[in-house]
Amino acid sequence: MPEVKVANLSKRFGDNAVLRDITFTIADGEFFTLLGPSGCGKSTTLACIAGLERPTGGTVAVGDTTFAGAGTFVPPEGRNLGMVFQSYALWPHMTVAQNLAMPLKIRKVDRREQDTLITEALAKVGLAEYRDRYPHQLSGGQQQRVALARALVYSPSVLLLDEPLSNLDAKLRDQARAWLKRLQTELGITTVYVTHDQDEALALSDRIAVMSKGDMVQIGTPQEIYETPATAEVAAFVGRCNFLTGTKTGPEEVRLDCTGQSITVPSSSVEGAGDVGGRVTVAVRPERLEIVSTGRAGVNVLTAQVLTSSYVGSRHEYDLRLGDHVIQVESNRPGLTGEVTLVVEPEACRLYPSTDALPEDVAALTTVSH
Ligand SMILES: Nc1ncnc2c1ncn2[C@@H]1O[C@H](COP(=O)(O)OP(=O)(O)OP(=O)(O)O)[C@@H](O)[C@H]1O
């Protein structure tokens, strides 16, 4: 299977620049996810790879073939890419087998060969027995598998999936996610996946590309994206995160605005957050904060008040008041109320320049009125 190379891709709709200088290379067999909030340009990027949109600038190449750029534009039907979109768009008046036959007819595959390919594709998605059913006789999950089989039936070089699971209910979606991952691994097909669901991106991907307002913000493995987000915005978007503003008072010390207390932080920080005297945002994940027995001494011991608690099966989630801030903490300790002692391991903290914009809803969540 070939590599997918997108270089300096830009796209404008009239005056609106929706993609700016997007560059990434997807390796053979990789599961690569474009992740970001609604409107950031994920689907447009995928559409430029598919040939459904013509880029304003930059290049798109698969293997040694340039599909777009330098005066070239190959239409979608010339690209041999498999596509599945949010609405599976099966033809309702055709059986499963007839749905799968359509792309083969368009490619003028002979009838006997068609039959073999349809049987193979349905076996891949576990629906060999369903070839004569109509779409309305299938569950949502099964319809989505048929859509996938229809995209695989002509052996595409790359699979492009745009929110293919978003029409499924939560439980079915979890099952479909696991199934899709197994299938992709078995087939070893290079896959570009679009989602705004961070859990889905973390669970499925070999690498994730996080986009924001038409820019590529970070590309990395799920672990890199979650544990070392490049910006506070990525930290806020991928997983839950607390943000505390303060002033850097030493190479490894920040005085927090919310309590006036100083905490020890790692000496390494995101570029622009390193200068002593500068304003910073400290980001820390809820599961990296620890509620301990009162009276504990040591580094980064803070006092907070329990505002609310909720039991979510595998753990308890607490909203705590820390000075004039609300922070979220995950804990195994049930039934905590009143004052609690909190430990913030220095290594759990990540520092960003405080000018790093946070989404408004996150900023609003972290402040409490007195
Ligand atoms: N055909 C079009 N004409 C004009 N503007 C468009 C067109 N298609 C997309 N846009 C705009 O481009 C921007 C990016 O859209 P895109 O669909 O790529 O975002 P997205 O990240 O996939 O969002 P979502 O998750 O909501 O699908 C949006 O502001 C959108 O309104």
From TrEMBL:
<keyword id="KW-0547">Nucleotide-binding</keyword>
<dbReference type="InterPro" id="IPR013611">
    <property type="entry name" value="Transp-assoc_OB_typ2"/>
</dbReference>
<feature type="domain" description="ABC transporter">
    <location>
        <begin position="4"/>
        <end position="238"/>
    </location>
</feature>
<dbReference type="Pfam" id="PF08402">
    <property type="entry name" value="TOBE_2"/>
</dbReference>
<dbReference type="GO" id="GO:0016887">
    <property type="term" value="F:ATP hydrolysis activity"/>
</dbReference>
<keyword id="KW-0813">Transport</keyword>
<dbReference type="InterPro" id="IPR027417">
    <property type="entry name" value="P-loop_NTPase"/>
</dbReference>
<dbReference type="InterPro" id="IPR017871">
    <property type="entry name" value="ABC_transporter-like_CS"/>
</dbReference>
<dbReference type="InterPro" id="IPR050093">
    <property type="entry name" value="ABC_SmlMolc_Importer"/>
</dbReference>
<dbReference type="InterPro" id="IPR008995">
    <property type="entry name" value="Mo/tungstate-bd_C_term_dom"/>
</dbReference>
<protein>
    <recommendedName>
        <fullName>ABC-type quaternary amine transporter</fullName>
        <ecNumber>7.6.2.9</ecNumber>
    </recommendedName>
</protein>
<dbReference type="InterPro" id="IPR003439">
    <property type="entry name" value="ABC_transporter-like_ATP-bd"/>
</dbReference>
<dbReference type="GO" id="GO:0005524">
    <property type="term" value="F:ATP binding"/>
</dbReference>
<dbReference type="GO" id="GO:0015418">
    <property type="term" value="F:ABC-type quaternary ammonium compound transporting activity"/>
</dbReference>
<dbReference type="InterPro" id="IPR003593">
    <property type="entry name" value="AAA+_ATPase"/>
</dbReference>
<keyword id="KW-0067">ATP-binding</keyword>
<dbReference type="Pfam" id="PF00005">
    <property type="entry name" value="ABC_tran"/>
</dbReference>
<dbReference type="GO" id="GO:0043190">
    <property type="term" value="C:ATP-binding cassette (ABC) transporter complex"/>
</dbReference>
